[in-house]
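REVIEWER CHECKLIST
Item 1: Sequence provided? yes
Item 2: Single chain? yes
Item 3: Sequence as submitted:
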Amino acid sequence: MTLPLADRYAAAKAAFDAAEKALDALKSEIKAAGAETHTGITCDVVLSLYERTTFSGTTAKQFLTDAEIKLCEKVGLVEKITVKAKGLVEA
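Item 4: Structure as written out by the authors:
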């Protein structure tokens, strides 16, 4: 029997969340090790540090009028899928 799409999505989301948590822990371990390159059997992992410039909308609002800010805005659609557990327990 194939599980309903909602249940398959929830299971994949749970697996993804667990994998992401494990990945975050490994990232922390790599950063804490202090080495740039970590050599493995199947791959090498390189930690690099670089500068990135970001734009502060909050600061820009101090210098621009509401009309000028409106001209800079871009509206887009965002999809969101939410899992709502039913509280059923598998026997």
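Item 5: Key structural point noted by reviewer: DSSP finds three helices and two strands in the chain.
Item 6: Recommendation: ____
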